[in-house]
Every structure is written in structure tokens, then in C-alpha cells.
Amino acid sequence: MTDNQRRIPLYLQIKRKLIDRIHNGDLSPGDPIPSESQLMQQYNVSRTTVRQTIRDLANDGIVETRRGAASRVKEEPQEDLHNPGIVHHELGTGFSVKVLRSQFMKEHSFAKKELELREKEQVYLLERIRLADGYPIGLQQLFAPVYISDMLTEKENEWFDIFPVLGMHGINYSTIKESVTAIIANRDEADLLGITSGDPLIEINRVTLGEDQNPIEYSKTKYLPSAFNYRIEVGRKY
User: Fold this and answer.
1) CA–CA distance, 168 with 180 (Å, rounded to integer)
2) What is the pLDDT of residues 107-139, one digit of tens each?
3) pLDDT higher for 92 or 224?
4) Within 13 Å and on the Cβ side, how many CA atoms surround 146?
5) Which residues are CB-neighbours of 178 under 8 A, at least 6 positions away?
6) 204 and 225 Cβ atoms separated by less than 8 Å
7) DSSP letters along 127-180, please?
8) Which end of the chain is more exposed for a tag (fewer CB within 10 A), N or C?
9) Same domain, yes or no, for 54 and 121?
């Protein structure tokens, strides 16, 4: 493995290899990709790494995932497909979530503005602690229009990332807009994350647009700096 490869997360390395197989004709649209167990054995990586690979492929519209069925190639990637410019992910293994709140609200005007909802409309809020190996690494508030809520409330205490869930229901994103801010934890956040009030946190604000360019989710996630990797990569092809 070269020094350059060591700097690239394992899930991206595997993703590039699978994309190469699609370009080479080893895998065609409609073909199943290797199972999680096969990929784990072939590349000697954890199930978490394999699932991150499949999530990324699904988010890019390259594979299609269905519950209880093999993931299949959806379409051939464009030759000029690039890294979106930013690579970030939680650090650790054994990812899970703990639901704090799951409800419909008429408040949260800022979230409704980001989702382009009318003031009288309700917005769905899912607030969860994100954990790695049972330890808190982040606190997330995720807002969505009411029509999205049924997709999210099903097993809301099990799924970790929203995009594979939406993808299974035929909803794919076209654009993701994120901003990153350094903040300090207030007393409630500190208690939930097991830190001291005033400790630093990384806040990621994200708005996701669907294929019709309408917002489908807005989230605010506050991470422990030690549990999050954020890196910019510009102009690198898969």
C-alpha cells in the first residue's frame, strides 16, 4: 500500500475498486455487487467499512439498495466522477443511535425556512445521540417535511445515516450544502455527550436537496472533535 493510499479512508479505496469493476464491465447495471461478507473477506476490512462503502455508492446513485435483497448496480458512473470535494466521517466502530425525541412541531422557524415550508406547516424533528462502541460522539437534530417522516420513523432507533433510508424509498439527493462551525457545549449538550460545559464541539449544519431541487432534510449535528474527521480533497478522481 502506498503512502497516498494510506491517507485515503478504506471505504473510499474499496469504493474506487468497485467503480473500476463497473467501468471495466465486470459489473453491469442490474448485477448484484459482492455481499458484505464477501467484501469483508476480500479486502480484510470490518463490516462498518463495507457498509460505509455501500452507503456512499448508494448516495451517488451508483448502486440500489433494498431491504432484504442484494445491492445492485443502478447505473455506470460518469468517467469524470470526482470526489465531491469534502470527505468527512465519524471515527470509531459499532455505530448506533439513541433517540431522544421524535415528534411533529410547528415551532423551529429556522428549520422550516431551510426546508422552504410555510409558517403554518408542521416539521418533523428527530433528535438522537450518535454513538460509537456505545460511547456518545455526537448530538443530531434532524428536521424533515411531514411527507418524509414515515420513512424515518420506521426503526428510527436503528438506522444511522438518512441517505440509504431515503434511497430505499426512491428518494435521492441532488445537492448537499454544509457549513462547519466551532462551538462550545452548553450544559445540556455536555450532559448528553459526557463532557464538561464549555468544552469545544464541531457543528455541522446540512441542507439536502432532492432531485427536484426541493429540500428534503435539514440537520444540525454537534460532534466531539476527537470523534470526527473532516478533510478537503479537491480534484481527485475515483
Assistant:
1) 28
2) 889 999 999 999 889 999 999 999 988 999 999
3) 224
4) 9
5) 86, 204, 205, 206, 207
6) no
7) EEEEEETTEEEEEEEEEEEHHHHHHHHTTTTT---HHHHHHHTT--EEEEEEEE
8) N
9) no
State which residues form the domain around 185: 89-232
Q: pLDDT per residue over 136-191, tens digit each? A: 999 999 999 999 988 898 888 888 888 878 877 778 777 888 899 999 999 999 99
| Strands annotated E in 2-152 | 63-64, 72-73, 86-90, 95-105, 123-132, 135-145
| Strand-pair partners of 124 | 104, 144
Residues 213, 175 contacting (CB under 8 angstroms): yes
Asked if residue 194 and residue 102 are part of one domain, the reply reads yes
Give the span between the Cα atoms of 131 and 119, in whole angstroms: 33
Q: Would residue 120 count as lying in a domain? A: yes
Same domain assignment for residues 106 and 166: yes
Q: 86 near 231, Cβ under 8 Å?
A: yes
Query: Which are the contacts of 183, defined by CB distance < 8 A and separation ≥ 6?
Result: 200, 201, 202, 203, 222
Q: Cα-flanking dihedrals φ and ψ of residue 8, to 5°?
A: -95, 125
